[in-house]
Amino acid sequence: MNWQILIEQQAGLAHIPAELRKQADCRSLDRSATLFHIGDLVQTVFSVISGEVRLVRRDMSGSEIVLQRSRGGFFAEASLGSARYHCDAVATEVSKVLCFPARQFRAALDDDADFRDAWLGHLAREVRKLRAQCERLNLRRADERIAHFIESEGTDGSITLNQPRKAWAAELGLTHEALYRALSQLQRNGRLSIQGQQLSLKKPS
């Protein structure tokens, strides 16, 4: 694996110690492939390089409940402190994931202070992201959720989406039809500029 290219794609990988890098493997996944099942022993720590992986569970009716979506970076971080996975991991499109043996990953966290500090920083950012997502889902209107997402996840009122509109709608807790209607309304009202995947909120005149 070319770690220089990987780090250019995901800066957080720069903190992976050299010995742990030697233990890493890259795995390709077809669409709908299952990476692990609920109840499987936790033997690997994963990071998405390309594509998308979802953590899912099923309710009593068999409907899918999405716990996390990752289009880049580590996911299922909480499993590192567990013996078994508490959900399934499914690729929603052709994907590549970086795989680290869990035992060596835990040992590196114990032995390398810089890596441990970087990992704690990563977890703190994930907590802030989840808090923002919870606050966003409490907003009633679709346009409010869109604006909140752009403000909280973007920079200076602008963001470039890294996922399809349908996937974004699901993350916002909206149907894709409701998302498209809200985007069109925001554009008509002059509150939003859309250039391909880039969305920019406009300041009130």
Summarize the structure in words.
By secondary structure, this protein is α+β, with helices and mostly antiparallel strands. It folds into 2 domains: 3-129, Jelly Rolls (Sandwich); 140-201, Winged helix-like DNA-binding domain superfamily/Winged helix DNA-binding domain (Arc Repressor Mutant, subunit A, Orthogonal Bundle). Helices cover 39% and strands 26% of the residues. It contains 7 helices and 11 strands. The chain has helices at 3-9, 18-23, 102-111, 113-137, 142-153, 165-171, 176-188; strands at residues 25-29, 34-36, 44-50, 53-58, 64-70, 73-75, 88-91, 95-101, 158-160, 192-195, 198-201. The strands form 3 sheets. Strands 1-8-3-6 form a 4-stranded antiparallel β-sheet. A 4-stranded antiparallel β-sheet has the order 2-7-4-5, with no helix packed on it. A hairpin with a 2-residue loop joins strand 10 (192-195) and strand 11. Helix 3 (102-111) packs across helix 4 (113-137), helix 4 (113-137) packs antiparallel against helix 5 (142-153) and helix 6 (165-171) packs across helix 7 (176-188). The termini are far apart.
